[in-house]
Design goal:
Elements (H helix, E strand, L loop, with lengths): L6 H22 L6 H13 L4 E5 L2 H11 L7 E4 L5 H9 L3 E4 L22 E5 L10 H11 L2 E5 L7 E2 L2 E2 L6 E5 L13 E5 L2 H10 L21 H11 L2 H19 L13 E2 L5 E4 L3 H10 L29 H9 E4 L7 H22 L1
Parallel strand pairs: 2-3, 2-4, 4-5, 5-8
Antiparallel strand pairs: 1-9, 6-7, 6-10, 8-9, 11-12
Helix pairs in contact: 1-7, 2-7, 3-4, 3-6, 8-11
The structure holds pyridoxal-5'-phosphate (PLP).
Pyridoxal-5'-phosphate binds next to helix 3 and helix 4.
């Protein structure tokens, strides 16, 4: 069996270091925030090319607090992509604001900057691009539009630790950037975690307060805040894992290159990485109009796959109140119907990649034969 992700293999490779890091937190009893979290914040901000990092208890919390720090509130609008995980849009909803979607570039699956300007209204406060599957959105035109319209840019970098756009890291380009350390992400905690990266000390100060009950210092609550603190044990584990992240990212990129080569000329649509980007392959998604049949056939051959994501957010029942309908964002809708994520994790072997390619090529060949 080839799993879709293999968290056990990774834990086995760093077990002693992780166990020692957890033991250290138990010995010091700094269970929430504390020294390990503070050091991790510094180290991860440096890794991402940002001045400041503020650790929180999930990627969703990071998005929520970044939008609050940006001043997003009731009646405001945030421009984003419909082809993302629900959390991007929930964070906007938590602020009492409205998501205004813009369709995607069908090659990269990221928000299409050419469609952003027509979605701007007097209520727009923020543009929130998502670096989907580990490839950054096309940031230069997005930053230029934001500058011209005096809007802030918040990157949803939950899938893009270490990704680069023209040499700049995800997390260093927008006014703020939000990361998730959900266990399956490229840098995963052993529980929940998230972080806001920013170069702006005022935003950082606000977010630090909001994550800890809006307190300037203990019991001096100047804002209506939240309990969004990052746990000490997660901070300590993330510090250990951050030291391996570059190695793991290169292993993902090597696996993706193997898939690219193994599926070349097979008729299968493989992910398109712009030459100026460093794609970190959180997800390696091919596209096929026979997705359901391919997924079943691969499962029958012992190959687990995933779908990221089967529904664009504007068609989720949970967001019916936004008033969108089928046909509003046809490129995102087509992608949601066709994407199929192949197994992708740093420990994936060359042999496993070959097995997957052989199986996918077989399906593509059978589809071509049936069509002719
Ligand atoms: C995972 C993810 C989130 C949410 O992060 P959590 O840590 O699970 O709250 C937000 N946006 C995107 C694009 C994600 O992939």
């Amino acid at each position: 069996m080839i799993p879709f992700v293999d968290l056990k293999a990774q834990y086995a490779s760093i077990k002693d270091e992780v166990n020692a890091a957890i033991q250290h937190v138990l010995d010091t009893c700094q269970f929430t925030l504390g020294a390990e979290v503070a050091k991790f914040e510094e180290e991860f901000a440096a890794y991402s090319g940002a001045k400041i990092g503020i650790g929180v208890n999930s990627g969703t919390s990071a998005l929520h607090l970044a939008l609050l720090a940006a001043g997003v509130g009731r009646g405001d609008e945030v421009i984003t992509t419909p082809f993302t995980f629900m959390a991007t849009v929930s964070a906007i909803d938590y602020c009492g604001a409205r998501a205004r979607f813009v369709d995607i570039n069908p090659r990269t699956l990221n928000i299409d900057p050419a469609r952003i300007e027509q979605a701007i209204t007097p209520r727009t406060k923020v543009i929130m691009p998502v670096h989907l599957h580990g490839q950054t959105a096309d940031m230069d035109p997005i930053l230029e539009i934001a500058r011209r319209h005096k809007l802030l840019v918040v990157e949803d970098a939950a899938q893009a630790h270490g990704a680069e756009y023209k040499g700049r890291r995800a997390g260093s380009m927008g006014d703020m950037a939000c990361f998730s350390f959900y266990p399956g992400k490229n840098l995963g905690a052993y529980g929940e975690g998230g972080l806001v990266a920013t170069g702006n000390p005022e935003f950082a100060r606000t977010i630090r307060m909001l994550r800890d009950w809006g307190a300037e210092k203990k019991y001096h609550h100047v804002l209506k805040g939240y309990n969004y603190r990052l746990e000490g044990i997660q901070g300590a584990i993330l510090r250990v894992k951050l030291r391996y992240l570059e190695r793991w990212t290169e292993a993902r990129r090597a696996a993706a290159a193997r898939y690219d080569r193994g599926l070349a000329d097979s008729g299968v649509t493989t992910p398109h990485a712009e030459a100026y980007n460093r794609h970190v392959y959180h997800i390696y998604a091919i596209r096929t109009k026979q997705r359901a049949a391919w997924q079943d056939a691969l499962q029958a051959q012992g190959i687990q796959t995933g779908i990221h994501y089967p529904f664009p957010v504007h068609l989720l029942p949970a967001f019916a109140d936004l008033g969108y309908k089928v046909g509003d964002f046809p490129l995102a809708e087509a992608a949601a119907n066709e994407v199929l994520s192949l197994p992708m994790f740093p420990e994936l072997t060359a042999e496993q990649c070959e097995t997957v390619c052989r199986a996918v090529r077989g399906l593509a060949g059978a589809s071509l034969a049936a069509a002719s």
